[in-house]
Specification:
By secondary structure, the protein is mainly α. The chain has a two-stranded antiparallel ribbon with strand order 1-2. It has a two-stranded antiparallel sheet with strand order 3-4. The protein contains 7 helices and 4 strands. A hairpin with a 6-residue loop joins strand 3 and strand 4. The protein is elongated, with a radius of gyration of 29 Å. 65% of the residues lie in helices and 7% in strands. It has 2 domains: 140 residues, no CATH class; 49 residues, no CATH class. Helix 1 runs parallel beside helix 7. Its main location: membrane. Keywords: Membrane, Transmembrane, Transmembrane helix.
Length: 204
Amino acid sequence: EEKFRDIIISMAATYGLYLISSLLYFEPWHMFTSFVQYMLWLPSSINILMVYAFCNTHDVSWGTKGDTAIASGLGHAKIEKKDGKEVAHVNIATDAEDANKDYDAFIVELKSPKPPASTKRDAATKREDQNKIFRTTLVLAWMCSNMVLAMVISSEWFADATTSGDDSGSHNDYLSFIFWSVAGLAAFRFIGSVWYRIRFMFHD
């Protein structure tokens, strides 16, 4: 059947070319020692890498969402440099009376908040804030596009539109496209690896 043929071609183009490429580079051992672990780890790694790439989780400033102004409503730590080190100064009440006074002062301040002070940002800060806004917009667009794609693929309309043939021999054109795309990309990578191997062998 065409469906079975597409699956076999896609799998052979992927895993078969992996084996052939490793033999061309005389390093086939990983195919026997870690191939099973790689196949079990692959689905999770794709999702993790996608989330890591889009959300930029290694950036600790990601949570600021572009807010670079220091909130002074309830106080904040003052950081000073001393002997080449950053030292934080925080006012902490030492007894109950001071704590009550601070609490009453905070209540009064919350009831009559001060107008936000206008802060001027330099060019570097503006550029950094724009990058954060861009990352946030990109992540939202990526999440929404995945949601729309999942809804479309799982809908009955899409199944009817991409299925051809009768009930005895139905054929999903979308899956065939995916399988042949995987085979084509694997062949493209294989051609590139072979070309690199040939250049490496005849390199002076």
